[in-house]
C-alpha cells in the first residue's frame, strides 16, 4: 500500500502586543518572528527533499501567511479548508490568557463548569471530528505523497491525542505543539501507522509571545 504523510503545521508567532485571545477574530497577522518561522518550516521541508504535493490552510490570516512560504517552496497553489480553523472560544477577545486572574470574576464562572469538554468553547470531540475529516480528505487526495495542513494549536493537539489513543481532556500546559511545529501523521493505505513531532523553528521560540489563539 502507498505511504502518505499528513503534516499538521501550527502557525507561527502572531503580532499580538496586547495579549488578546484572538481566536477566530480576523486581522491577526504573523509577527516578524512569525514570518521567519514560516520560512524556516518551508526550508526544513524543501531542503530535506520532502515529497510535498499539497498545502492546505485554515482560512485565518495567520495560518494563510504561515502556509505561503511552503507552498512557494514546492511551487504549489495554496488551498483553504475551513475545517482547519481555530477552536471556537467564548473568551475570544479577552486578555485572560495574559491575566488568568480575571477568571476569579463571577461573570466567567458559568463558562467553567466542565473543563473536560471544555464548557467555554467548541468541544474537543467536535474539533477532532472536523480535523480528522480534513486529514482523511487530504490523505485520499494526496495518496502516496506528503501534504501540509496549516492549523492551530488546540485543533492540532486534540487530533494528535485522538490518533494516538489518548484522552482528549488534558492540561493545556502539557501540549507538545509549539509555534511552527510539525505533527506528522503517517498512513499505510488508509491505516494510521505512526506520528512524528518536530520543531523546525525551535531556535526562534525563546522570547516568542506565549498567548495562543484560544
From TrEMBL:
Gene3D superfamilies recorded? Phosphoglycerate mutase-like (3.40.50.1240)
One matching Pfam family is His_Phos_1
SMART domains annotated for this entry?
PGAM (SM00855)
Q: What InterPro entries does the database record attribute to this sequence?
A: His_Pase_superF_clade-1, His_PPase_superfam, PGM_Phosphatase
Q: Which PANTHER family match?
A: BROAD-SPECIFICITY PHOSPHATASE YOR283W-RELATED (PTHR48100), PHOSPHOGLYCERATE MUTASE (PTHR48100:SF51)
Its protein name is Histidine phosphatase family protein
Q: Which organism is it from?
A: Isoptericola chiayiensis
Amino acid at each position: 500500500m502507498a505511504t502518505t504523510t499528513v503534516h499538521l503545521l501550527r502557525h507561527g508567532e502572531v503580532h499580538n502586543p496586547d495579549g488578546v485571545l484572538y481566536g477566530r477574530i480576523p486581522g491577526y497577522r504573523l509577527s516578524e518572528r512569525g514570518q521567519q518561522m514560516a520560512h524556516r518550516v518551508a526550508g526544513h521541508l524543501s531542503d530535506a527533499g520532502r515529497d510535498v504535493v499539497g498545502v492546505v490552510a485554515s482560512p485565518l490570516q495567520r495560518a494563510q501567511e504561515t502556509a505561503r512560504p511552503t507552498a512557494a517552496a514546492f511551487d504549489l497553489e495554496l488551498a483553504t479548508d475551513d475545517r482547519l480553523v481555530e477552536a471556537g472560544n467564548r473568551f475570544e477577545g479577552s486578555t485572560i490568557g495574559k491575566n488568568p486572574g480575571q477568571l476569579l470574576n463571577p461573570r466567567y464562572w458559568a463558562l467553567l463548569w466542565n473543563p473536560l469538554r471544555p464548557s467555554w468553547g467548541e468541544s474537543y470531540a467536535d474539533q477532532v471530528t472536523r480535523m480528522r475529516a480534513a486529514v482523511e480528505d487530504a490523505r485520499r487526495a494526496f495518496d502516496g505523497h506528503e501534504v501540509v495542513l496549516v492549523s492551530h494549536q488546540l485543533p492540532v493537539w486534540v487530533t494528535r491525542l485522538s490518533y494516538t489513543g489518548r484522552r482528549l481532556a488534558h492540561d493545556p500546559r502539557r501540549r507538545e505543539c509549539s509555534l511552527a511545529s510539525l505533527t506528522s501523521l503517517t498512513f499505510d493505505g488508509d491505516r494510521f501507522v505512526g506520528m512524528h513531532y518536530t520543531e523546525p523553528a525551535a531556535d526562534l521560540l525563546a522570547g516568542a509571545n506565549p498567548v495562543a489563539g484560544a
